[in-house]
Task: inverse folding
């Protein structure tokens, strides 16, 4: 879902750029408070894993593929503000070194895949976890649903940005982007649940590192 | 021998980078949407390229070029995020 340069109007690129910079500034302040010994390698591993997993496009319907975003996994393990930093790191490196996602579109990509995907999945995960009274099944359901919603919501924000930019009409962009990402989101949910299950089975203590 | 958990995590990430040539070559959801609606060619060429298309330049074997790019990116991101987090942690202690 990396938007290249040329798809967004200057006002949309600027507005999402401001949102991204502001969110990163808050994220630095928030994560700074609780960053500890164990969170440091988790930040590194999550950024590395998300980068590598994002390379592994999986086919969905009709000659289209999707890829993992990873914001839900990061948000569940470290919280939404740390997720903003992790996804921003991934997106900046992808943009500057791998020419994936435009430089002027970086703010929009961080907004969609970092901020929107991170916060939406975090609160859905938390809400379902509370409903299930903090048990293992609730965490897995929350992770799966949160991951699915994060991808669909990010795609809808992407569609809105394209539409406000005049690139594609609202009535076409929203159903087309939302529709295909409802499928891609299933992949996101499965991967997120699989990784979380693996952590629960091997190192359940790593689920207690949420900082911000 | 009990390895540190994050070494295993990094090893899993590197393994994913090594198998990345098996990734689907179909365009992703956004690219497909852009192609289907005839605005795919609005995408600007990047002003500069370092490792474009996740393929390390100058390597003739496609799979090898992808693996080198993937492993490099994975290590860069581990170092970058680990360094950023260390910086935030030390600011915290100061």
Result:
């Amino acid at each position: 879902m990396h938007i290249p340069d040329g798809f967004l109007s200057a006002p949309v690129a600027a507005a999402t750029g401001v949102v991204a910079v502001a969110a990163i500034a808050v994220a630095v302040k928030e994560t700074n408070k609780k960053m500890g010994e164990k969170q440091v390698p988790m930040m590194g591993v999550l950024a590395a894993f998300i980068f590598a997993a994002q390379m592994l496009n999986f086919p969905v319907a009709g000659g289209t593929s999707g890829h993992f975003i990873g914001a839900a996994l990061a948000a569940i393990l470290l919280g939404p503000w740390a997720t903003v930093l992790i996804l921003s790191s991934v997106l900046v490196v992808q943009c500057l070194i791998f020419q994936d996602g435009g430089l002027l579109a970086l703010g929009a990509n961080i907004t969609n895949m970092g901020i929107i995907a991170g916060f939406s999945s975090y609160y859905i995960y938390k809400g379902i976890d509370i409903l299930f009274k903090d048990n293992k099944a609730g965490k897995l359901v929350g992770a799966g649903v949160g991951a699915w919603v994060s991808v669909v919501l990010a795609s809808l924000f992407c569609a809105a940005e394209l539409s406000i930019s005049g690139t594609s009409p609202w009535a076409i962009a929203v159903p087309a982007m939302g529709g295909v990402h409802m499928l891609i989101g299933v992949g996101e949910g499965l991967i997120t649940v699989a990784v979380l299950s693996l952590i629960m089975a091997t190192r359940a203590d790593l689920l207690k590192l949420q900082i911000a | 021998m009990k390895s540190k958990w994050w070494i295993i995590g990094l090893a899993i990430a590197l393994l994913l980078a090594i198998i990345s040539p098996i990734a689907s070559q179909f365009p992703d959801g956004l690219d497909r949407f852009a192609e289907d609606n005839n605005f795919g060619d609005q995408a600007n060429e990047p002003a500069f390229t370092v490792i474009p298309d996740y393929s390390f330049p100058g390597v003739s074997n496609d799979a090898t070029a992808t693996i080198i790019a993937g492993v490099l990116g994975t290590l860069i991101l581990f170092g970058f995020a680990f360094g950023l987090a260390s910086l935030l942690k030390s600011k915290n202690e100061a």
